[in-house]
Amino acid sequence: MKVHLDRTLCDGFGICAKHAPEYFSLDDWGYASLIGDGTVPEADRDAVMRALMDCPAHAIMELDERRPDDVARPPDGADDPAARLKVESNEAEWGFTR
């Protein structure tokens, strides 16, 4: 598991440092800082997840380990988003007329 702390969202509640002091420290004004690179071993996962879930400002995020190549692409012709664009040629379908 890997986490990221967005310091611009932190409001200084300090709950993260209470739940996972090995991963979050507080500066002189009470705002959180991430200790290390955000990598969390399985043994500490529960404490860090508790800090993430209890953060009132939602400043802690779990980073997804999947890569773009891991996601299966839809088959050709499957639900093309461009087909749903609202343009002049299909304005009657989406409810706008001039």
TrEMBL record:
InterPro entries: Fe-S_cluster_ET
Signal peptide span: none
Keywords recorded for this protein, A-Z: 3Fe-4S, Electron transport, Iron, Iron-sulfur, Metal-binding, Transport
Coiled-coil region list: none
Region: Disordered, residue numbers: 65-98
Listed GO MF terms: 3 iron, 4 sulfur cluster binding; metal ion binding
Cofactor names: [3Fe-4S] cluster
Protein name: Ferredoxin
Lineage per the UniProt record: Bacteria, Bacillati, Actinomycetota, Actinomycetes, Mycobacteriales
